[in-house]
Amino acid sequence: MDVILLERIAKLGQMGETVKVRDGYARNYLLPTGRALRANDANKARFEAERAVLEARNLERRSEAQKIADTLDGKSFIVVRAAGETGQLYGSVATRDIVEILGEEGYHITRNQVVLNNPIKTVGLHKVEIQLHAEVYVTVELNVARSAEEAERQLQGEDLTSADAIYGVDEDALRPEDFFNPDADYDLDEEDGEEAASESEEEEENKGE
Fold first, then answer.
1. DSSP letter, residue 13
2. Is residue 92 located within the same domain as residue 164?
3. Which family is this protein grouped under (predicted)?
4. Most CB within 10 Å of its CB: which of 67, 71, 143, 203?
């Protein structure tokens, strides 16, 4: 479908341009939200007649979006989710979850404003882009963790999916000799000791023969 853009839209074009888009995208998003008009002679004439009003409205929306951006950009939000020891979530954090999380903090955005290619499926610090206006983008951080305490540890730079975080072991401090030391005096129980002594005696006898 050919439409006339009533505001600048990323990857589509500038205000006033006629562009071709998918029918579903036009019917479900561009047309009902007032971001475009069907491209025909009547709407072209209407756009030209209302251009000044549309430009003023766009400037106002941009100004309002920028005010929100000034308070939202760079903010970090804690998201507590159940996850396994390796950090894999039992589920995911999707667009609708992000809308709810920001809404609880007083930032009312729509799902179309969240730029998220794939749902978040692991614990960690994740950057998410929010499009507040065609020309105003901000980036927020989602601190996804199994608890508020773990979220705080992540903010301090700790990797909750590393071996030392999972098992309490500092993997950088491990040495081969920590796993087996041939010179160590290992404690054997009585039966093991007798069995080892018996095997040693048999080896000596076989050598004598």
1. B
2. yes
3. Belongs to the bacterial ribosomal protein bL9 family.
4. 143
